[in-house]
Amino acid sequence: DDATPHAGAIDALDEELYVACQQGHVDIVRLLLGAGAAINQAKDNGATPLYIACQEDYLEIARMLLEAGAAIDQTNNSGVTPLLVSCVSGRLAIVKLLSSY
Known about the structure:
Blueprint: H1 3-23, H2 26-34, H3 49-55, H4 59-67, H5 82-88, H6 92-99
Helix pairs in contact: 1-2, 1-3, 2-4, 3-4, 3-5, 4-6, 5-6
């Protein structure tokens, strides 16, 4: 079945995108987005790549994700949006960026 390996590969891309966003690896995020990683794929706790980039204060990555179409209003399992986590964490540059979308 050709669908199964492909699905696994996409899952791996999605996981790698999340980790790259969490660790601030701009070039890897760019490559993974170009390879088709699912930009809005949430972890078990509901956190998306955009959410974690905002939480960790990676402005350039947040901008890349938004430009690629990341969902700005997608919440984690506690109902927290990327904008709210940015406000609570004092990430003012990211708050300004998110507010422009």
